[in-house]
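Lecture notes, part 5. Sequence design as translation. It can be helpful to think of inverse folding as translation between two languages: the language of shapes and the language of residues. The source text, in structure tokens, appears below.
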């Protein structure tokens, strides 16, 4: 099994696990009760440039992106890493849809769908009101086949093609709506398991945002979901990517590691990794391996709880 091979390959100290019972309370060593980790953090492979966009296909494979190298890689169930797509237009966030296609945020200005060979089979959206996007960053696919995605300024041309950073929704029939445009750097995005809440993770503020989903592609007013713990002597640092487990707990990547919050916004703990994480997702056997893309390396973390699966195969 992949997990067994990875553990045999490389292990790091279990002291990398940190949990807290409540925001501001002193941290204690050990796993987060009921969640994990259940074993050490493992370095799957290093020597990349800057990793992002992990996504599991439910069949034992994981894809992840290397933005500066302009590639998407695939880790198969046997532990082998190969190039899934070369010349990815600087793809960042990814997610598989119900039909096994891989949706990707091309930072060069598009949201696309790829087949199992890594070939672009269609463009989901390449602009809004006649202008290209700034640099699409992260996405989540809902049960209706629509896509919520963020469009911040990272890697974008100047002046910004859209004139502002925003969060959009592209419906299954191709209609696009701008939903949020008052955040400086909307980065990670995900839905709650019941898809009644959209979480948006800005990278240039400590306050993480949540929005009630009143209907597909329509949101209520934003509210602060939680305020991230800050590294020593820093203020106002935000998150990057994130994932969610079957109970609705959020795992937000930050300068301190993966900060874990329950659905009420209470800090449950921080899972520390050797490099600063950019994004994360669940995969592996029973969907209980937490994979984190951390700058130059991919890491895996065995968990007690499983990750939630969006856009399940029909």
């Amino acid at each position: 099994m992949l997990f067994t091979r990875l553990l045999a390959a490389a292990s790091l100290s279990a002291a990398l696990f940190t949990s807290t019972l409540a925001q501001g309370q002193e941290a204690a060593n050990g796993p987060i009760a009921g969640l994990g980790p259940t074993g050490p953090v493992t370095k799957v492979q290093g020597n990349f440039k800057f990793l992002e966009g992990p996504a599991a296909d439910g069949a034992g494979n994981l894809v992840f992106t290397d933005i500066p190298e302009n590639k998407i890689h695939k880790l198969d169930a046997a532990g082998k890493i190969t190039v899934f797509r070369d010349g990815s237009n600087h793809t960042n966030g990814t997610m598989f849809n119900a039909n096994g296609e891989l949706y990707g945020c091309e930072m060069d200005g598009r949201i696309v769908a790829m087949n199992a060979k890594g070939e672009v089979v269609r463009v989901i959206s390449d602009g809004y009101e006649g202008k290209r996007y700034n640099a699409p960053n992260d996405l989540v696919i809902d049960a209706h086949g629509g896509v919520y995605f963020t469009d911040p300024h990272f890697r974008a041309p100047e002046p910004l093609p859209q004139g502002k950073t925003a969060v959009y929704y592209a419906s299954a029939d191709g209609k696009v709506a701008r939903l949020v445009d008052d955040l400086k750097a909307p980065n990670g995005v995900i839905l709650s398991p019941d898809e009644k809440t959209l979480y948006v993770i800005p990278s240039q503020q400590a306050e993480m945002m949540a929005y009630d989903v009143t209907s597909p592609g329509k949101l209520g007013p934003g509210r602060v979901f939680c305020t991230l713990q800050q590294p020593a002597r820093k203020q106002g640092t935000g998150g990057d990517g994130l994932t969610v487990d079957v109970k609705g707990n959020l795992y937000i990547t930050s300068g301190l590691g993966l900060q874990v919050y329950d659905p009420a916004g209470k800090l449950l703990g921080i899972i520390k990794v050797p490099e600063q994480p950019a994004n994360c997702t669940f995969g592996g056997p029973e969907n209980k391996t937490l994979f984190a893309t951390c700058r130059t390396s991919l890491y895996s973390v065995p968990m007690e709880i499983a990750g939630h699966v969006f856009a399940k195969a029909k």
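The translated text above is only one of many valid answers, since several sequences can fold into similar shapes. Residues 1-29 have pLDDT under 50 and may be disordered.
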